[in-house]
Design a protein that fits this description.
By secondary structure, this protein is of the alpha+beta class. Helices cover 26% and strands 32% of the residues. Strands 5-6-4-3-2-1-7 form a seven-stranded mixed beta sheet, sandwiched between helices. A hairpin with a 2-residue loop joins β5 and β6. It holds the Pfam family Acetyltransf_1.
């Protein structure tokens, strides 16, 4: 899935070039974070990845997601972030951290809409949002980690 993303999508998610194919160390960190990782599949193909990992700060979990190009703008990213957020809260997270490129307008709008009380700090081309840990405000159905929608399934990666 990562190899099929545009360079811009990969940069927006990782804030650096990740190479094609991605380095094994990057894949290992995505699948085995200090929190939990989730994948979405369609027809045996991974189309999305979301995760949370413990960040600096007391009980702060960083949330992140990346969705395959053809599956973007369909609500899968927010569904996956909702699953990751719920899991982080269950693990004891009291705050969420999002690190986003200032040029990533879609993600910036999503964070501001879903976590409207988030504070933001700028560091060059990056914006760091901190928000109270809660599920995002949304009207979409949230898929359970073991559940599935018509077009995708989300599974917990140990």
């Amino acid at each position: 899935m990562l190899s099929g993303l545009t360079d811009l999508s990969r940069y927006f998610r990782f804030q650096t070039a990740i190479g094609t194919p991605p380095r094994p160390a990057l894949l290992l960190r995505m699948l085995c974070p200090t929190g939990t990782a989730f994948v979405a599949t369609r027809d045996q193909t991974i189309v999305g990845h979301a995760m949370w990992a413990w960040a600096p700060g007391e009980s702060t979990a960083e949330l992140a997601a990346v969705i395959a190009e053809d599956d973007q703008r369909r609500g899968l990213g927010i569904r996956m972030l909702s699953i990751a957020a719920a899991d982080a809260i269950a693990a004891g997270a009291t705050h969420f951290l999002f690190v986003v490129s200032a040029a990533n307008e879609r993600t910036l709008r999503m964070i501001r809409r879903r976590w409207p009380t988030a504070t933001v700090e700028r560091d060059g081309a990056l914006l760091t949002f901190t928000a109270p840990a809660r599920l995002p405000e949304e009207r979409l159905h949230v898929v359970s980690p073991r559940g599935a929608t018509r077009s995708s399934a989300v599974a917990r990666v140990p």
